[in-house]
Amino acid sequence: MYTRLFGISLLLILGYAYVAAPPLSFVPGTTLTIARGESLTSIAEKLRAEHIITHAASFKYIVTFFGEGRGIQAGAYRFTAAENAFVVARRMIVGDYGVPPARITFIEGSTVREMAAQINELIPTVTQEEFIALANADEGYLFPDTYLFSLSTDAPGIRNALRDNFEKKITTIQDDIRRSGHSLSEIVTMASLVEKEASTAADRRIVAGILWNRLARNMPLQVDAVFGYIFNRSTYSPSPKDLKVDSPYNTYAHRGLPPGPIGNPGLDALQAAASSTATKYLYYLTGNDGLMHYAATYTEHQANLKKYLY
Asked: What angle do CA 239, 246, 131 make, to 5 degrees?
């Protein structure tokens, strides 16, 4: 009897070893992306098709029986060596991706649309459409910085990390915001304009001072950078047709600040908006020499246009 039971056990062990063994056709370095919510059947078939496992049915059984109710973690998995189905299942249940976290650097002024493209490139399970729909209302309040995200991080997790970082950074200039007499939303919107319009700390503060001056005089801001946001393009040189576009962000057609930020400003731009340089200037331009040139009157501004642009 003992010999018979031993023989049956040995056959079962050998059988499990056979069905769990990796295929001989496995290719080292294979990467497989699992979508959020993807079915176990679909995952098993993809693993088999990519020659990571030999039998889809045995993989499904292993996950169901040994997974203790836990599902497969979404994300991109890298397989550098052949592994049996038990190891593959364990890795995918606990989210052992075999790759380092995604390192994403968002530059100052990045829009939610631009951030979405960066995220999707490195974390394919987060689609651009998903992130835009979730984070669009947070435009301006997602702090541009370098982040490390697990490949299982979802869109809300990324949005929350960027928003939490903004809340932490903004506390460092709360006193300046309070002294400015402007609301946080006004400061963030102004900072988003300044971020696009000037490149140095000194110029950002002067440009912010000019734009606040124009608002105080009920002059249209006439900020060219808004057209990049309106038309989702990198150029800020509007054509005569662009200047007439029917958009609340058109600072030529509408007075006052735009209805919201046109990007996510960095701390220096936020600081510039909150503690701008007091100035008599009402006009500015970036000349062909790469420098900012300022004017107190329209006549002086016209002279600067002829001297530095035309």
From this structure: 95
Residue 154, CA atoms < 13 Å, CB-side half-sphere: 8
Which two tokens mark 249?
A: 């962000």
Burial bucket for residue 183 (CB in 10 Å: 0-12, 13-18, 19+):
exposed
Other beta carbons less than 10 A from residue 49's beta carbon: 11
Domain boundaries, the chain: 16-94, 102-169, 181-308
Q: What pLDDT, in 10s, does the model give residues 160-202?
A: 999 999 999 999 999 999 999 999 999 999 999 999 999 999 9
Going through the chain in order, the beta strands assigned E by DSSP cover 30-34, 75-79, 102-105, 146-149, 283-286, 292-295
Total residues belonging to the chain: 310
| 146 CB-side CA count, 13 A | 2
CATH H-level, domain 16-94: superfamily: Endolytic murein transglycosylase (3.30.1490.480)
Question: Burial of 184 by CB count in 10 Å (0-12 exposed, 13-18 middle, 19+ buried)?
Answer: middle
Token pair, residue 53, equals 């496992």
Alpha helical stretches, state H, 21-154:
40-49, 56-66, 85-94, 112-122, 128-135
Q: Which amino acid is at 305?
A: L
Residues in contact with 19: Cβ distance below 8 Å, sequence separation at least 6, in sequence order: 54, 55, 58, 85
Does this model's pTM top 0.90? no
